[in-house]
């Protein structure tokens, strides 16, 4: 799997992608330069050929000029007569000039002295000049004679002005030198006729050069004004004049090889090739690098795998398809107590007991539990995770074996504990609930449903529960909930609930809070205990106690009445009898007996009053019914019709028509009668008397208020206990003081009470509290 | 000598007058029918009666209220006896709290008892 180094070095190319790229670059660049050079050479040759062709045309023209000049001079020479003088020179010269446009003038020089010129006006200044002696023309003239043929001298500046050339033909008569017959050609004409000037227009430049025979220096005529390289020119030699004609291509510019499109294209191509080469060659190197990395990772993984295999807290077993143990880790050997050599003698099925009937099925499962048999025949409870691998078409199994003995034990304990707890909850009728705040979901134990009388499929919501709370306890319940949510602390409180079938139950709620890792409230849970029975017993007990206290109080009250009122009479009787004993006078005795009669009458009244009070007590069990209040008021008004009329009382009845109280109806009539007649008695004759009846309710009482604007009572200075027996007031002579006492007793016996507020001249206010 | 009776019981008043006149005809008896009448009188006058027999249960102003309201210095020459038909223990206990009360007497007052009361004043 690991590539050997030589293998790696064999691919030399792949290992030097940069060098290879450079080589590719050089080769392609070199080839492109080569092509560029070749191309340039071909082009140059073509140019040279074109130049030579042009030069040939110039040569032809010059040859034409020279020939026509020769013919002209020869024609002139033929005009020489026998005396040695030209005959009709002007005539002949004119004809010759007309027929030959290449020449500008002719002359004849006998013995070297110019004596005939045509056209005269232009050339007359040359007359008489001896060319054989004239410094400028001397050498060429002599050379012409020596050569014995026509020779063109110049270009030079003529004596008669103008730059031009002179073609002289030496004339020999009878082998005796006669002189020269010559043509004058202006340089300008020469250039025009030879076609050299025309070439100038086509981008070429032709020019003439000659070694000055006098100075020996080379002179150039019609040379280009710019600098030029004479080496780039091609030349033509005209032997009859000693001229060299040069032709150069003025447009010809130096072609730099580097600018050749071939080179530029080649450069790009080379770069491209170099780059591609680099890329292509680099790929294997990258792959190599990748492989090396993977190899290292693989090695690392293998080390890790080894470490895990040996050091993991689980037993690991490697089986082949025949259940033979290929490899096991130390943990397995430690747990079972076998050595590796021992363990290889077993098949895996010999080492494990499972619920599965057939072993062959076991390894089809990904997970199974069983008992691992140790060397000492003890068993370990295990959970096995089976990974089946296919290697070269052969199944192998890697088994991870976890010792779950302890887990099983604690699971069993937990199960026991749970069943115990469930039993305890069932027996104690304790309801258990949980409220998960995040999901706002509420979970109830079965007992909770029973407590509330809900069906078990009821969808539990906070509203539903809040609605089940007794209306008088809702406020307390909400307050407790707010407290728990804000303090995140549990609480214990009592409250009543109304079950589905409208039964009221007393509950003891214990609430606990579960906080999450961030200290936030995650769950609220608690128990609910039905304490209705206990509560009712307690309430009954309290009722009984209260009743005993009340009765005790009434008993004291009663004994007080007896001690004060009854004893008053008895002591009087005693006093009278005492006196009677000492009286001798018959009249006085009679007086005493009359007195005694009065006393016994009073005693009888008191006794009958007391009897009424006692009767109230006995009637306590009288019929209690729902009594509508309004008709009773009307009834009382009717009974007191006369008193109301006499005292001109105006009754304002603000009692609602539908108001009812549950009360003994005869008591109610008696109480209202007593109170209202009492109020009428206290009415103030000086003002318009009003009695106002109002009704209201509070938590535990239905309240009837009777207010008046009468004379009122001074409760401060009079006996404050106006509801006591025989409490009487100033100017209240017709009251025996028993009615309010009886009314109050009747109210008390029904669980109600009477309150009196009054001030002298300010009117009074009786408040009747009827228990709900 | 003067005896003042503050009591609403007309029969008792009559009996006391008879009894006292039988003991000593020279004793003047002054009667108030309730505490308020007595209080109003002694608001203006200093008490000249040597003995005051004060009932507890009376309309308008009872015996206790009377004792609470009077100026004690006006009674410095008088002995106040609480006389009541009540044999209630609570009244007897309450009477102990009033230093001005000479004694707590339960009705009816016998001839002997009255003699005992007036004894110091009869030469």
UniProtKB/TrEMBL annotation, chain A:
Catalytic reactions on record: ATP + protein L-histidine = ADP + protein N-phospho-L-histidine
Pfam families, per the entry: CHASE, HATPase_c, PAS
Domain CHASE, first and last residues per copy: 113-200
PROSITE patterns xref list: CHASE, HIS_KIN, PAC, PAS
Keywords: Kinase, Membrane, Phosphoprotein, Transferase, Transmembrane, Transmembrane helix
InterPro entries tied to this protein: CHASE_dom (IPR006189), HATPase_C_sf (IPR036890), HATPase_dom (IPR003594), His_kinase_dom (IPR005467), PAS (IPR000014), PAS-assoc_C (IPR000700), PAS-like_dom_sf (IPR035965), PAS_fold (IPR013767)
TM stretches of this protein: 20-37, 256-281
Swiss-Prot/TrEMBL GO biological process terms: regulation of DNA-templated transcription
SMART domains the record matches: CHASE (SM01079), HATPase_c (SM00387)
Domain named PAS: residues: 417-488
Protein name: histidine kinase
Superkingdom, natural source: Bacteria
Assigned EC number: 2.7.13.3
Domain PAC residues, every copy: 491-543
From TrEMBL, chain B:
Top-level taxon: Bacteria
GO BP annotations, alphabetical order: phosphorelay signal transduction system
Domain Response regulatory residues, every copy: 2-122
UniProt keywords, alphabetically: Phosphoprotein
Keyword Phosphoprotein in annotation: yes
Modified residue annotations for 4-aspartylphosphate: 55
Pfam families, A to Z: Response_reg
Cross-referenced InterPro entries: Bact_response_regulator (IPR050595), CheY-like_superfamily (IPR011006), Sig_transdc_resp-reg_receiver (IPR001789)
PANTHER family: RESPONSE REGULATORY DOMAIN-CONTAINING PROTEIN, STRESS RESPONSE REGULATOR PROTEIN 1
Protein name: Response regulator receiver domain-containing protein
Organism of derivation: Mesonia phycicola
Species lineage: Bacteria, Pseudomonadati, Bacteroidota, Flavobacteriia, Flavobacteriales
């Amino acid at each position: 799997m690991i590539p050997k180094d030589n293998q790696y070095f064999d691919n030399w190319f792949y290992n030097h992608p940069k060098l290879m790229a450079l080589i590719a670059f050089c080769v392609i660049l070199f080839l492109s330069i080569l092509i560029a050079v070749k191309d340039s050479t071909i082009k140059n040759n073509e140019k040279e050929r074109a130049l030579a062709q042009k030069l040939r045309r110039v040569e032809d023209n010059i040859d034409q000029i020279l020939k026509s000049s020769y013919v002209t001079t020869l024609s002139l020479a033929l005009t020489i007569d026998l005396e040695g003088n030209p005959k009709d020179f002007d005539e002949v010269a004119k004809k010759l000039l007309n027929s030959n446009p290449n020449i500008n003038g002719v002359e004849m020089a006998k013995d070297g002295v110019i004596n005939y010129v045509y056209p005269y006006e232009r050339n007359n200044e040359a007359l008489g000049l001896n060319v054989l002696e004239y410094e400028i023309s001397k050498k060429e003239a002599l050379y012409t004679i020596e050569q014995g043929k026509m020779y063109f001298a110049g270009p030079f500046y003529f004596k008669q002005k103008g730059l031009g050339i002179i073609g002289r033909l030496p004339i020999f008569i009878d082998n005796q030198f006669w002189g020269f017959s010559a043509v004058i050609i202006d340089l300008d004409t020469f250039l025009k006729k030879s076609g050299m000037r025309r070439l100038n227009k086509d981008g070429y430049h032709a020019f003439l050069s000659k070694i000055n025979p006098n100075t020996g220096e080379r002179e150039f005529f019609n040379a280009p004004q710019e600098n030029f390289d004479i080496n780039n020119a091609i030349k033509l030699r005209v032997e009859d004049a000693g001229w060299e004609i040069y032709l150069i291509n003025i447009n010809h510019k130096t072609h730099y090889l580097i600018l050749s499109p071939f080179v530029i294209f080649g450069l790009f191509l080379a770069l491209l090739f170099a780059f591609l080469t680099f890329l292509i060659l680099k790929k294997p190197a990258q792959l190599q690098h990748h492989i090396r990395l993977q190899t290292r990772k693989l090695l690392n993984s293998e080390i890790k795998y080894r470490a895990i295999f040996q050091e993991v807290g689980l037993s690991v077993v490697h089986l082949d398809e025949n259940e033979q143990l290929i490899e096991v880790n130390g943990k397995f050997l430690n747990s079972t107590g076998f050595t590796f050599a021992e363990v290889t003698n077993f098949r895996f099925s010999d080492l494990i007991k499972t619920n599965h009937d057939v072993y062959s099925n076991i390894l089809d499962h990904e997970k199974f539990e069983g008992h691992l048999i140790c060397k000492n025949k003890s068993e370990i409870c295990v959970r096995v995770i089976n990974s089946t691998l296919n290697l070269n078409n052969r199944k192998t199994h890697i088994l991870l074996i976890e010792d779950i003995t302890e887990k099983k034990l604690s699971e069993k304990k937990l199960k026991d504990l749970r069943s115990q707890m469930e039993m305890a909850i069932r027996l104690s009728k304790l309801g258990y609930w949980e409220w998960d705040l995040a999901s706002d979901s509420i979970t109830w134990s079965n007992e909770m449903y029973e407590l509330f009388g809900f069906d078990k499929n009821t969808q539990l919501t906070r509203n539903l529960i809040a609605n089940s709370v007794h209306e008088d306890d809702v406020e307390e319940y909400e307050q407790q909930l707010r407290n728990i949510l804000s303090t995140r602390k549990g609480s214990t409180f009592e409250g009543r609930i109304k079950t589905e079938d409208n039964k009221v139950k007393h509950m003891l709620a214990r609430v606990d809070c579960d906080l999450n890792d961030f200290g936030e409230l995650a769950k609220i849970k608690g128990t609910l205990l039905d304490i209705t029975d206990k509560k009712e017993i307690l309430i009954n007990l309290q009722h009984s106690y209260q009743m005993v206290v009340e009765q005790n109080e009434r008993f004291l009250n009663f004994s007080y009445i007896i001690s004060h009122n009854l004893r008053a009479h008895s002591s009087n009787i005693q006093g009278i009898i005492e006196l009677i004993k000492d009286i001798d006078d018959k009249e006085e005795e009679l007086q005493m007996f009359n007195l005694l009669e009065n006393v016994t009458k009073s005693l009888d009244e008191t006794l009958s009053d007391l009897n009424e009070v006692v009767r109230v007590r006995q009637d306590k069990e009288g019929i209690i019914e729902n009594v509508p209040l309004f008709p009773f008021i009307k009834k009382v008004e009717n009974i007191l019709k006369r008193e109301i009329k006499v005292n001109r009382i105006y009754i304002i009845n603000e009692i609602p028509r539908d108001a009812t109280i549950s009360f003994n109806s005869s008591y109610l009539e008696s109480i209202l009668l007593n109170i209202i007649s009492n109020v009428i008695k206290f009415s103030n004759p000086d003002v318009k008397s009003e009695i106002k009846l109002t009704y209201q309710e509070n938590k535990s009482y239905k309240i009837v208020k009777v207010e008046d604007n009468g004379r009122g009572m001074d409760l401060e200075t009079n006996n404050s206990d106006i509801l006591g027996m025989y409490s009487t007031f100033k100017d209240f002579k017709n009251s025996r003081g028993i009615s309010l006492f009886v009314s109050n007793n009747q109210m008390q016996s029904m669980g109600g009470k009477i309150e009196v507020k009054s001030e002298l001249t300010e009117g009074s206010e009786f408040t009747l509290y009827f228990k709900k | 000598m003067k005896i003042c009776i503050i009591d609403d019981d007309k029969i008792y008043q009559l009996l006391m007058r008879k009894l006292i006149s039988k003991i000593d005809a020279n004793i003047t008896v002054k009667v108030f029918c309730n505490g308020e009448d007595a209080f109003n009188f002694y608001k203006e006058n200093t008490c000249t009666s040597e003995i005051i027999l004060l009932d507890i249960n009376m309309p308008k102003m009872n015996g206790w209220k009377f004792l609470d309201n009077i100026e004690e210095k006006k009674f410095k020459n008088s002995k106040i006896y609480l006389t009541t038909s009540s044999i209630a223990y609570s009244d007897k206990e309450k009477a102990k709290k009033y230093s001005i009360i000479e004694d707590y007497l339960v009705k009816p007052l016998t001839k002997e008892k009255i003699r005992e009361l007036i004894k110091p004043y009869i030469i």
